[in-house]
């Protein structure tokens, strides 16, 4: 009868034997997430972004723009323009950033001259990404719906409403806004003719 009594009792799922491992897994998960989030935040800092020699070129150009020095005193940092805010697009951008580090290590863009030789290609990739995302990062600060066109200068007051009607995105008109816009390379002439 004693055996029957113990089999009728429901198992205690949260007995000490299960509670401690579950608690340890939970705490480990929280610490891992906090660590991962800290790494993401650190790699979004301007000091980190410009720590590679090749990014010093961009830094000097950026310091001469309204995105760095402006009346409000609020600069946009590298990640504001180049890293999405949403988690999955942010992870994708961070993963794809390996190529910048790789090319720095390989010496592809480690001097100003080499950087300039690849500038058009690099800028074109960034512009294509911005176009594909409807200038998502730009719109986190600049949105047609929040613009007061009447307070903009004459040119912007005319062009922004037209751009909105045409379905244009920020990068369609504002290439070179934070970095020098590179010259499009000359097309090589066909020498076989």
**CATH class placement:** Mainly Alpha
CATH architecture term: Orthogonal Bundle
Q: Give the overall silhouette.
A: globular
Which radius of gyration do the C-alpha atoms yield? Answer: 26 Å
| The CATH homologous superfamily | Di-heme elbow motif domain
- First-last Cα distance: 102 Å
Following the backbone from N to C, one meets helices and strands in this order, namely: HHHHHHHHHHH
Quaternary structure classification: single chain
- Helix % is 55-70%
> What is the CATH topology descriptor?
Multiheme cytochrome fold
Number of strands: 0
Mean pLDDT rating: 87
Low-pLDDT stretches are: none
Features of this protein?
0% strand; Multiheme cytochrome fold; 193 residues; mainly alpha; single chain
Question: What's the quick description here?
Answer:
This protein has helices spanning 2-8, 16-42, 46-49, 55-62, 78-82, 87-96, 98-106, 112-132, 136-139, 154-166, 170-173.
Topology diagram in text:
Layout: H1 2-8, H2 16-42, H3 46-49, H4 55-62, H5 78-82, H6 87-96, H7 98-106, H8 112-132, H9 136-139, H10 154-166, H11 170-173
Give a verbal description of the structure.
By secondary structure, the chain is an all-alpha fold. It has a single domain, classed as Di-heme elbow motif domain (Multiheme cytochrome fold). It is built from eleven helices and no strands. The protein starts with a helix and ends in a 20-residue tail after the last helix. 7% of the residues are buried.
């Amino acid at each position: 009868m004693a055996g029957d009594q113990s089999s009728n009792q429901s198992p205690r799922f949260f007995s000490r034997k299960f509670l401690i491992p579950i608690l340890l897994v939970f705490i480990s998960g929280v610490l891992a997430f906090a660590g991962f989030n800290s790494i993401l935040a650190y790699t979004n800092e301007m000091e980190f972004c410009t720590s590679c020699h090749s990014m010093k070129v961009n830094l000097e150009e950026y310091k001469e723009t309204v995105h760095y020095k402006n009346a409000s005193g609020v600069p946009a940092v590298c990640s504001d323009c180049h890293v999405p805010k949403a988690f999955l697009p942010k992870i994708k951008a961070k993963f794809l950033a390996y190529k910048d580090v790789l090319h720095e290590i390989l010496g592809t863009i480690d001097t100003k001259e080499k950087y300039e030789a690849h500038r058009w290609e690099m800028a074109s990739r960034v512009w294509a990404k911005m176009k594909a995302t409807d200038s998502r990062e730009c719109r986190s600060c600049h949105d047609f719906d929040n613009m007061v066109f009447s307070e903009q200068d004459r040119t912007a007051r005319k062009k922004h409403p037209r751009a909105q009607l045409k379905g244009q995105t920020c990068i369609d008109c504002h290439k070179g806004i934070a970095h020098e816009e590179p010259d499009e390379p000359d097309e090589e002439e066909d020498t076989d003719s």
